[in-house]
Structures are given as structure tokens and as C-alpha cells.
Design a protein that fits this description.
This protein is α+β, with helices and mostly antiparallel strands. Helix content is 31%, strand content 36%. It is built from five helices and eleven strands; from the N terminus they run αααββββββαβββββα. It has helices at residues 9-21, 28-39, 42-59, 117-134, 211-218; strands at 63-65, 72-74, 80-82, 85-88, 93-98, 103-109, 139-144, 148-159, 164-175, 180-191, 197-208. A five-stranded antiparallel beta sheet has the order 7-8-9-10-11, covered by helices on one side. A four-stranded antiparallel beta sheet has the order 3-4-5-6, with no helix packed on it. Strands 1-2 form a two-stranded antiparallel ribbon. Helix 1 (9-21) packs antiparallel against helix 2 and helix 1 (9-21) packs parallel to helix 3. The model has no long low-confidence stretch (mean pLDDT 89).
Length: 220
Amino acid sequence: MDDRVDISFQEKVKISSGFVLCSPPGEVNDVFNDVRTLVNNDEALQDGILEAIEQYNVEQYITVTLPGSEHEVIISQYGKLGEDRFLDPRSKQSFKFDHIHLTAHDLENYATQTDLEPLRVAVEKEILTYVGDHYPNGVCTIYATDKDIIIAVVDNKYNPNNFWNGRWLASWIYDTQSNTLKGCTKVNVHYYEDGNVQLNTEKNVDGQVASNDVSLYTHA
């Protein structure tokens, strides 16, 4: 008796997308190659799963170095300007991002349109120093909206030779109108020697920032 159940291609893509979104740090390519075998239709799979790869890159703070630049930029929802286009506030450039090959191209100058740019630059200076002191492979990108300063930080540690990989990512949103600060830190560690164990944990923090503390930066 044959108990096998036929699954449509669309259902296979949906299942494969779920696998991709759950990929451990540094292992999304391995997961993608595995689901390629399951689906057995490379061209159709790439088209069908692209949305999941884009979502993964944005949610996991994948980084990229722009052509001619020496610093990395985080790919995040806070820097998304449009379809496949993101912002590097530090160099004041926008760029297109290839989610499959993880490369940046089509750079354009980007004119900042917020009064919070001086505060953003001041915070960026401090956060760059902080990340450099506390995160061995850390990358940060600081954004500004009409009322918020947003700090995004990610640090990856890949050690496949010893069967583990890990990622720390955090976001902090400072509302300049209410002086409130909301933070979220996520840690994902995968250990797969003689087993397969993942740690996924998240911590959220709410706080208040004294207005006189902020003024020290705006007048620096």
C-alpha cells in the first residue's frame, strides 16, 4: 500500500519558505540548498521563495558593504525606502540590494529630510564607539524619522568547524516627542554536533530618557 501524499508545487514552496525563515545564523544557504533537493525545480523555487529570503534578510539584519565604502550597513525595515531599495544614513546614500547574492548596487545620493539629523549624527558617533568596544564583529546603523532615532545593532559569530553559529541583534527606538525608549534584543544560537539544538530568546525593554541628557548631544 502506497501511503505517499502528492503535494502541489505551491505547497512545497510554502513549506520551503517556512524552512528558510527559520534558518539558523549563517546557514540560510545550507537550508536553501536542502529545499532545492526537495522541490527539484530551481528556477521556479527561486522565484517562489524570494519573498521569504527578502523577509529573512530584513528580519535578521543581514549586512552589506556598499561599493567604495569601508563600513557595513544593516538591511532592516527601518532603512527600507521602496522595493529592493535601502538607505545608508551614514554615507547618505540609497542603494538597491540583491537579496540572493547579498550585494549592493545602483547607489544614489540621498537628501536627509528630517530635523533630527544632527541628533542622529551625534548618536551615531557614540554608538559606533560603543559597538566597537563591546561587539567583536558588531555592525550598527542609526536612522532618523520625523520624531524617532532608531539604533540597529547586529553581531554574528560563525564557527561551523565546531558545529555552532550565533547571532545577537538589537533595536532601540527613541521617541523624541515623548522621551520614551523601547528596546528589543534577540539572541539565536545553533549547536549541531551530535544533535540539533537552537536557542531563540528575546527581551524587550521600556524606559524613559531625561530631556537634559538628550540636549547634551544636540548641543555637542
